[in-house]
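Run Xylan alpha-1,2-glucuronidase through structure prediction, thanks.
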Amino acid sequence: MNWEQAWLKYEQDETGTYASFLSSITLKGHSEVLDTAVKELQLAAAAMYGIIPHVNESEKIPHEGIHLVVGDNDMAIGTEGYKIESYGGLITVYGESDVGVLYGVFGVLRLMRSGGIPDGYQGVEIPDNPLRMLNHWDNMDGSIERGYSGESFFFKSGEVIVSERIMDYTRLNASIGINGVVINNVNVAGAAIDLITEKYREPLKTYSDIFRAHGIKLYLSLDYAAPMDIGGLDTCDPLDEQVITWWQRTLDALYSELPDMGGFLIKADSEGRPGPFSYGRTHAEGANMLGKIVAPYGGIILWRCFVYNCTQDWRDTTQDRASASYDHFIPLDGAFDDNVILQIKNGPMDFQVREPVSPLLGAMKATNQVLEFQAAQEYTGQQRHVCYLVPMWKEVLDFRTHCASENDRVRDVVAGRTYAMKHSGIAAVANTGNDSNWTGHDLAAANYYGFGRLIWKTSLTSEEIAEEWVCQTFNREAVDVICNMLMKSWPAYEKYTSPLGIGWMVNPGHHYGPNVDGYEYDMFGTYHRADHLAMGVDRTEAGTGYIDQYFPKNKRMYSSTVTCPESLLLFFHRIPYSYQLSTGKTLIQHIYDAHYEGVETVSEMLEQWTALEGTVEALPYMRVKKRLEHQLDHAGLWRDVVNSYFYRKTLIEDEKGRKLY
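Sure, done. The structure for Xylan alpha-1,2-glucuronidase is below.
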């Protein structure tokens, strides 16, 4: 085995605290999922205490050990929820389903290794979000679009890989409550187009079986032009009878052999992808055609809202990429079938280090919605920089949309508490690859773990999630230091990259490293509009009008430079460099200072990590140290490039006399 077990490595526990509990497991009956739960307890018992638990099949309540109970509890905990009770020498895990019991087992093991399970403990966990998904952008040649952790462990050289690593990956997902996985890139190309054909049926059946035993459904990204690309038709018009018949025949055959398939993710009419627009059809018509075909199988269609004009003219100040998704989809509210779900990015742009919440969230009152995050750090350091994203995601989930008098936060909308939805939840672009530590940077695994835990229970704090992860991945002695590093990493990254909601400022294509004008005169949009007098995009009614997409209270907040959060000031307003911020600093001085402060924070993080030598394992210690050293150098490059750009633009000196190039 050439990979690690991340937070499921179950290290030896010298205290023996839970050895007696793990010595026996009692349950009634069998299922794939219950067998998985038992195996996980056995793995933990062997690794932590060197024991093999005795498994008892009995209806009687035992006096000691761990008791797994399905369906014998009067609490309304839903099909995926669980209850844990600890009395005397017995820990009981209740679930209304075997999946609930599996999640409860992982909950027990998490408590054992982080917070502890005191005698008399009673805990109930019910997931906040029905759909909890990972979207992989893996390609069939083994590469991963926006992948920063090595190659794919799903695909290689046009083949689907079946390996032991798939089992360990699935265990990691189940341990944090993930219940759906899209294994291939939304930009479907090459051999991936054929994933829905008989050619790859057998390995996909194996995946589906492994996933099912862990409470997870398999999803695929679809090529919308498949009727043309592999079906030989001359159209993929969603209302054409030949097209409908081809999809019906193809997906019927797929479901006949993979009845547990969750459904399909589709990127259409975006960045060159085919879609219904080519035929004068709406996105609702395009999505509903597929929705009707998969509905008898319980399948769902996830339809991405990342649709915008990517051939803009930078000189046209009326065009605004931020407005696109709302403009395209709001007129279609209520037009989608009840097994079609719109997948909406957290912001109106593209996973920037800071951008406002998408105005689509909360605005669509009659449409299923899934919120989309990006755990892969495309614009936040590409897993070469530490950037703990859970605090960012918390801000998004806690944002008040003012779409209703109550339950109006984003977390309420996507959980289905604001409006009645048949399907809702949260997805993230995955950050895994075949590197031995799964995520390239050891500390980037905090985003993988943190995503699952946060969307399961959105009331958890960023600090609580970080502490859980550190306890299970490193050790208790490292908790304070690593948690402190994680909590200041996102603010630091924001400071030394792009200021006050501007974003972008990256090299085109690969998106790594500073290039202030990299996309500024590009067809994909315009982002900072800096000249020698001012910078920022006016998105008020006097500008692009984007601000009109928000509900009145938020529109008023963003409309004024006085009430607009300064972290988003330049996203919504064009500001002169002499403008005074709440700190008393001018805008230009803030840019200079923030970039220096961000680099200083990274230097502090490197010092903190260095002090952990001997406290954490040698191999991860050296890997993280090397990455932090690179981050410090790269943060300095960001600081110098951005500060020099604005110095040359404005000829305004740094008040503190620091060197500007």
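The domain at 495-537+574-650 is CATH 3.90.1330.10 (Alpha-d-glucuronidase, C-terminal Domain).
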